[in-house]
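Data deposition worksheet. Section B asks for the primary sequence of the deposited chain exactly as it was used as input, without tags or linkers unless they were present during the calculation. Section C holds the resulting structure in token form. Section D is free text for depositor observations; keep each observation to a single sentence. Incomplete worksheets are returned to the depositor.
Section A, Depositor: J.P.
Section B:
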Amino acid sequence: MESIYVVISGSVQGVGFRHFARENARGLGLVGYVKNLQNGKVEVFAQGESSDLEKYVSQLKAGPISAHVTDTQITWKEIGKKYDEFKVAF
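Section C:
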């Protein structure tokens, strides 16, 4: 199991991005969280199998139809805290 930390930039708040991220993560069996940042970006931390995380990154780069992703910064991390589910954090 691996984990990723992703910061997504663009028109990604107020467009359903967190719901999109949560549903796609759950569909891949990932755990972690998605959260809006005060600077207008979205933060995602996800844990799961490497191949599922790679698929997830592709989904995040595309975003929901109402979003416009301009950049994704991805950091692969060692497992730290283990999450039980994927949720929207506030």
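Section D:
The two ends are 26 Å apart (CA to CA).
The chain has a mean pLDDT of 96.
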